């Protein structure tokens, strides 16, 4: 993903701006791994292999995403930041 792409993305749930945290880049300076975070609703979206994962909550797999995000930044996940999965919101 190119860094300029962040200017075209917004949170799919509340349409707020996203904050980008870059984990790794390739030789062309494109983002390979990172995390997009919505400061309004506290959702986060990992960037894996250059692709931002911005699926609706009901289609996200916590068991697949959480280990990556914890590896990148153990302090990123706390009580204020989560997937907001529908099963957790009930």
Structure description:
- The protein has one domain (3-89).
- By secondary structure, it is of the alpha+beta class.
- The chain has a 4-stranded antiparallel beta sheet, with helices on one face.
- Residues 78-90 have low confidence and may be disordered.
- It has 2 helices and 4 strands, in the order ββββαα.
- It starts with 17 loop residues before the first strand and ends with a helix.
Keywords:
90 residues; alpha+beta; 4-stranded antiparallel sheet; 4 strands; 17% helix
Major sheet attributes: 4 strands, antiparallel
Shape: globular
Point out poorly predicted stretches: 78-90
Across the major sheet, the strand order is 1-2-3-4
The ordered H/E elements are EEEEHH
What is the number of strand segments? 4
- As a percent range, the share of helical residues equals 10-25%
Mind telling me the C-alpha Rg?
13 Å
Question: How far from one another are the termini?
Answer: 34 Å
- Hey, roughly how much beta strand do the residues contain? 25-35%
Q: What is the count of DSSP helices, taking H or I runs of 4+ residues?
A: 2
- Class by helix and strand content? alpha+beta
Q: Quick check: average pLDDT?
A: 78
Any idea how many domains?
A: 1
């Amino acid at each position: 993903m190119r860094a300029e792409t962040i200017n075209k993305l917004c949170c799919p749930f509340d349409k707020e701006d996203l904050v980008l945290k870059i984990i790794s880049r390739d030789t062309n300076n494109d983002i390979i791994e990172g995390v997009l975070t919505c400061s309004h609703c506290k959702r986060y979206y990992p960037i894996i292999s250059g692709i931002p994962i911005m699926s609706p909550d009901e289609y996200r797999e916590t068991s697949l995403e959480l280990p990556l995000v914890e590896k990148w930044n153990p302090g990123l996940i706390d009580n204020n930041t989560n997937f907001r999965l529908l099963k957790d919101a009930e």
